[in-house]
Records
---
Amino acid sequence: MIGNDIVDLSDPESSRDACHSRFDRRVFRAEEGRSLSTDYSDVQIRWILWSAKEAAYKAARRVSAGVVFSPARFVVDLDRSLCGAVWCGTRRWPVRVRIDGDCVHAVVNGDETTAGTLSGVRRLTAAELRDPSEVVRRFALASIGAELGVAISELRIEKVDRIPQLVLAGSVGHVELSLSHHGAYAGFACRNPRIDAAARISRRIAVRKAARSHDAPHASISYPSRAVQGDLR
């Protein structure tokens, strides 16, 4: 399951004084952020944790549309490299967070690997700020198309239960896609459609192997000797 979230640290909403004094106590657990490097400022740590929670929530909604975003229920555990997990009850969501200048970008991949994930971030121009939702869609399609070597016309974004999905021409089904924008930044995360297709093939092969394995006890039963076989004919 894919989820991503982005925070523009230069946006006035992200400043040290933008949040009420009770915000951190209401949103974060005492144990969150303790393992993070002291190289990060309090403001950076706040939005590192927040973006990880938001990204995990978006991934959780793919499992159940009824999931409610209660930030304190999504507990972040990151190491000094900003990789780790977000816990919600007994469910664990692997996450990685990156800081690039004024941008904090969190990506969740429920498969515990980033190998099959495409993601990207870009700063918007002044003109693009008028419609960031449309810009992030175009940015995602252009980035994914370039990565896969296909024309943008071969890709489209659809929403299923208000959740964006990527559709690649000629393929069956949707590919998980997460879009986000805040302030002057836009970001996305997506399952790599080609890796996703390969994974589906691997799963089909695994199912076939499992089926053969299920039949194996019958095939491995020792047959009677020829003399006994003669009696059975």
---
Amino acid sequence: MTRSLVFLMIIALTATVAFVGCGKKEEPKPVVQEAPPPPPAPSVADVVLAKGFDASWNAVDPTTVFTPKDRINVLVKTANALPGNSVVATWWYVKTNQVIKSDTIALREAGANNTQFFIERAKGWPTGEYRVDVTLNGGAPRSTAFQVH
């Protein structure tokens, strides 16, 4: 083999390596880490009217009909709560659209909570239609109607 042929082969080999090496390199795909889903929002899970409640915060004699001398209890179950979340119970006499009482309780525990509110009146409640509106952190009220007979 002649020197010029070897020289041409070296040039051709160098050009091929250079051409292949200059080709566009495929960039590695970035690893996409999915963000964890946001925690569920605090909510009012259940509202139960009852004549009482037990030591485990369960309703005793759940009802929506009371007598004028009854103590009227509402048990509020919240879900996904955070300490400091605010539960408000506002009691209404429907006939006059009058607020009877409004109470606020700040929750102390995270997660599920049971909260109890009540109204009572020594001389008895007027007969008629009532409701209690329960809100959590100022959200939309969850209304529950009841009657006094």
---
Amino acid sequence: MPTMIYLLRIDDFAAAHGVDPDLAFAGASPEALAAALTDALRTPALFEHWRGKQDEPDKVPATLGATDATARVRAAQHDLYVEVEVRTRLPHALLKQRLDWLIGPHWTLRDVRAG
């Protein structure tokens, strides 16, 4: 899959935490979020933690844990919102999965383009 650039917006950064506190982003800055999301895309750690919490972890498809060692994330505060740029070869579904675990529904996809 080619590298894609996803532009996201978080309007209420203070509320940007996932539902499960064991998986949720616990940082306080856009830079900390960028680091957490980069790790979630580059390594299987967050996925493995989530998988271990499932009733039948051995039945979770391994493809859901795909990673992209070249993924890059930048996040910056703008007046009233945080803008996040994600560059990854992972499909949107896996990016959404990791974002949902980390920050829940507190993000909006603004643009997608080939990178």
